[in-house]
């Protein structure tokens, strides 16, 4: 059954807003995926704050055009899952790449990053980057390294003094 025009306009407006507010978007193919696998896919993405929904290609093209993104290159003949995150640039790509190893019927098609359409290779490269939390942990570790090195050096001198005193006490 066809959707009424008002519903189509609402869907277009909703999708355009998602595209504009998202830090990154991944378009992925899911042809032949079982309902069980699709549920697993959606639940995994939802846990990480990634919204995921199936849209028609024509609606995605119209929303991209409304958001000011060139969509002439999009010409899929397959159903598409639109996954977006407004928190982290790498999360959708990383999760979909990981899930596609378990669910063989899901594959990355293209993505949107910084308001530009990017190809599959760029999305997969983005998936290999660490998350923001991992990067923060690396920065904290790097900042902490000189301090912990200084503590170890200072503790080494005290340890050496204690060893000398213990040896002197044992000799007496």
Helical region count? Answer: 6
- Rounded to the nearest angstrom, the radius of gyration is 26 Å
**Helix/strand order:** HEHEHEHEEHH
| Main β-sheet description | 5 strands, antiparallel
**Level of helix content?**
55-70%
The name CATH uses for the topology of the largest domain is Alpha-Beta Plaits
CATH superfamily descriptor of the largest domain: Ribosomal protein L10, N-terminal RNA-binding domain
Q: What is the correct CATH architecture of the largest domain? A: 2-Layer Sandwich
Number of domains: 2
Structural class: alpha+beta
* Strand order across the largest sheet: 2-3-1-4-5
Strand content: 15-25%
Count every beta strand, where a strand is a DSSP E run of 2 or more residues: 5
Shape summary: elongated
Low-confidence stretches: none
Mean pLDDT metric: 86
> Quick one: CATH class of the largest domain?
Alpha Beta
Distance between the termini: 99 Å
Task: Report on this structure.
The chain is α+β, with helices and mostly antiparallel strands and 172 residues long. The protein folds into 2 domains: 5-129, 2-Layer Sandwich (Alpha-Beta Plaits); 130-172. It has 6 helices and 5 strands, in the order αβαβαβαββαα. It has a 5-stranded antiparallel beta sheet with strand order 2-3-1-4-5. Strand 4 (107-113) and strand 5 (116-118) form a beta hairpin. The model has no long low-confidence stretch (mean pLDDT 86).
Short description:
The chain is α+β, with helices and mostly antiparallel strands and 172 residues long. The chain has helices spanning 5-21, 35-47, 57-66, 91-102, 120-127, 132-171, and strands at 24-29, 51-55, 80-85, 107-113, 116-118. The protein contains 6 helices and 5 strands.
């Amino acid at each position: 059954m066809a959707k009424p025009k008002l519903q189509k306009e609402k869907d277009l407006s909703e999708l355009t807003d998602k595209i504009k507010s998202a830090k990154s978007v991944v378009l992925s193919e899911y042809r032949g995926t079982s309902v069980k696998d699709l549920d697993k896919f959606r639940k995994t993405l939802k846990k990480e704050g990634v919204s995921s929904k199936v849209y028609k290609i024509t609606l995605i093209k119209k929303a991209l055009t409304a958001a000011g993104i060139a969509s002439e290159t999009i010409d899929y003949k397959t159903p598409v899952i639109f996954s977006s995150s407004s928190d982290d640039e790498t999360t959708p790509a990383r999760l979909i790449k990981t899930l596609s190893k378990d669910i063989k019927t899901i594959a990355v098609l293209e993505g949107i990053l910084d308001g530009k359409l990017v190809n599959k290779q760029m999305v997969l490269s983005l998936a290999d980057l660490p998350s923001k939390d991992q990067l923060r942990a690396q920065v904290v570790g790097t900042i902490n390294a000189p301090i912990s090195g200084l503590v170890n050096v200072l503790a080494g001198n005290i340890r050496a003094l204690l060893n000398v005193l213990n040896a002197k006490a044992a000799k007496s």
